[in-house]
Task: structure prediction
Amino acid sequence: MLSLPTMESPAFRVGTLPISGRLILAPMDGFSDLPFRSLCREFGSAMSYTSFVSAAAIVARSPSALASLAYLPQERPVAFQIFDDDPARLLEAGRRLIDLQPDILDINMGCSARCVSGRGAGAGLLRDPAKIGRIVGSLSRALPIPITAKIRLGWDDATRNYLDVARAIADNGGRLIAVHGRTRQQGYRGRADHAPIGEIKAAVPIPVLGNGDVASADAARDLMQATGCDGVLIGRAAIGNPWVFRGLPADCVPPAEVLRVAREHLRRMTVFHDEPRAVVLFRKHLARYLDRLDAPSSARAVCLAAETVGEVLAAVECLARPVAAAPTPPLPASRFAAAAGL
Result:
């Protein structure tokens, strides 16, 4: 039976750093900014991963790159995720980031985008486990915080070298491995293969996180029980659905609560981003909130065409009026929430 963390007993440790939960918001480019991360932390995500940032941009002191690494104290533990194909540049970036006091430095070895993996960064690193070992080793020796990595199963089905990659990370001082159950070639197509996550967990002495096609807290629990992994990264299923970290089924959250959280999310976006950018970024989240409201297509069109914060709020308020008159059903707990005492 899977043991759940208590106040006295963390779920697992990254080096000596305790992690007090098993469900974690996955790093997602274009989504994992401070407003969304902080919201998910309040709903129960056990730590925060930033979106990945180019090591070259950090070395060049790019203002936008450094701004994307901003975090709130209540988000700790915080992992900065960076990517590059050059070991020396990754090391230099890591040294510069120490001044920002992250708790963990995570190396992205899983991005399948051609513009990243095609030049040898992200999932492109998976073709060279020895190079991965050198990168992790140099960072682990030079920096005072845990070094972790997020990987895929391999470059393609013919080179599913995930055990070699995992051992290269663990043998060179890596403190945690997050595993997405697809190859680089798959991208996000097909179904994630979770069986290798269990193989990796059995092969290395450090915590392993599972990732890929985890649509609910119950699915996360099933993945942990099937593979023995220490926790689960939840990505796309958390967009418009921070309740997943409380173990609540998305279709059981009352519409009034969905609207309340959507408004709060937008408020945080406008504090952190300038208005035009806040609106553009929030519309991606709003589309998923609207899915939970079963909003008619005409209302969706108005919401998603909004260009100012005022227009977004006005459209949301139009949705809120019929919701306010509807009865609010009780929230059922999932198996995960019940077991965790939530």
